[in-house]
Amino acid sequence: MGNGKCKLIIHGGAGRLEGKVATKEQYRVGLQEALHPSFETLLQEGARAAVLHAIRLLESDPIFNAGTGSKLQRDGRVRMSAALMDSVDSIFSGVINIYDVEHPISVADSLRGEVHHLLSGNEATEYARRKGFPFHDPITMSRFIEYRKALKNREKFGTVGAVALDEDGIVCAGTSTGGIGNETPGRVSDSASVAGTYADELGGVSCTGKGEHIINQAVAAQVIYRLRDGVPLKTILLDLMKEGASRNHEFGLISLDKNGRFGVRSTKNSISVLYALKDASHELDFTTGRRNLIL
Ligand code: GLY
Predict the structure, then answer these.
(1) Distance of CA 155 from the midpoint of ligand 1 (Å)
(2) Those residues with Cβ within 8 angstroms of residue 139's Cβ, 6 or more apart along the chain or in another chain
(3) What average pLDDT does range 179-185 have in this prediction?
(4) Strands across the sheet with 197-200, in order?
(5) Is 41 annotated in the active site?
(6) pLDDT for 156
(7) 3-class secondary structure per residue, the chain
(8) 145-169: average pLDDT
(9) How high is the pLDDT of residue 151?
(10) Which among 41, 125, 159, 177 is annotated as catalytic?
(11) Which ligand 1 atom is the nearest neighbour of the CA of 211?
């Protein structure tokens, strides 16, 4: 496989909304450490393998709100959601409120081959055990302290995600989250829904921010369906963010279209998506100061 067409963009959530477990520089380093090996995977194994590699690395890094280091829900437990989709078969597979696994995105990937592609709660966790995913406690001390301090302070959100385009033109998008922190158990995030994660042969999207707002605007699916109508990615993102801002919505996204255009946008200046991207001629991250990026 060559590398002319290959593109990878990843995100680690939404800036100040991530809580206070890490500094901006730590987020930048964490994203870089996920970007480079995953880009190699993109070159060698294609889009889906690269998205899985990137998200697994971010799930393993305790500063990000996904996998190990996920935020605690109101009852002091961690429940995680993850999903992915690619243009090979357009199957959306995911887990909602799974617990005690190391890599929710790997369980989501495994569900692609099942009759039912989306499982939640106990059944998602039982499925993971049957498939050989071992017990893993994702609660870190930093998140536990954050939870104890912030019991009354809801609505901080965070997520990780990746979108890749490979040399064969295959697009894959994936998202993984520990939720918003202190949420009512049973809440369902956008991440394992087509509002938060979507991909087909025209492009891919992974969202971050307040799940309720992302679901209200059906963000990721809407981007792709407007691409189908022939609307340029830049116009779609501008329209969606304008609508989001007018509704006081708080979210951002990363996206890629089939022509390899990267797009990063958020509804408010105060929400900066923590992203990093790479292709044959560009390598950028959120510290470049380009909050709203179309490349
Ligand atoms: N976007 C992550 C969440 O709302 O759970």
Answers:
(1) 9
(2) 70, 72, 78
(3) 91
(4) 197-200, 203-209, 251-257, 262-266, 293-294
(5) no
(6) 59
(7) CCCCCCEEEEECCCHHHHCCCCCHHHHHHHHHHHHHHHHHHHHHHCHHHHHHHHHHHHHHCCCCCCCCCCCCCCCCCCCEEEEEEECCCCCCEEEEEECCCCCHHHHHHHHHHCCCCEEEHHHHHHHHHHCCCCCCCCCCHHHHHHHHHCCCCCCCCEEEEEEEECCCCCEEEEEEEEECCCCCCCCCCCCCCCCCEEEECCEEEEEEECHHHHHHCCHHHHHHHHHHCCCCHHHHHHHHHHHHHHCCCCEEEEEEECCCCEEEEECCCCCCCCEEEEECCCEEEHHHCCCCEEC
(8) 81
(9) 62
(10) 159
(11) 4
Alpha-carbon gap, residue 32 to 152, rounded angstroms: 34
Confirm or reject: Cβ of 14 under 6 Å from ligand 1. no
Phi and psi at residue 58, to the nearest 5°: -70, -35
**Location of structure tokens 């190699």:** 40
CATH code, 7-289: 3.60.20.30
> Residue 207: how many CB atoms within 10 A of its CB?
33
Q: Tokens in use for 147? A: 């939870």
User: Taking the complete model, does pTM exceed 0.70, yes or no?
Assistant: yes
Domain ranges of the chain: 7-289
Is residue 178 lining ligand 1, measured as CB closer than 6 Å?
no
Q: Cα–chain-centroid distance for residue 187?
A: 18
- Ligand 1 centroid to 232 CA: how many Å? 27
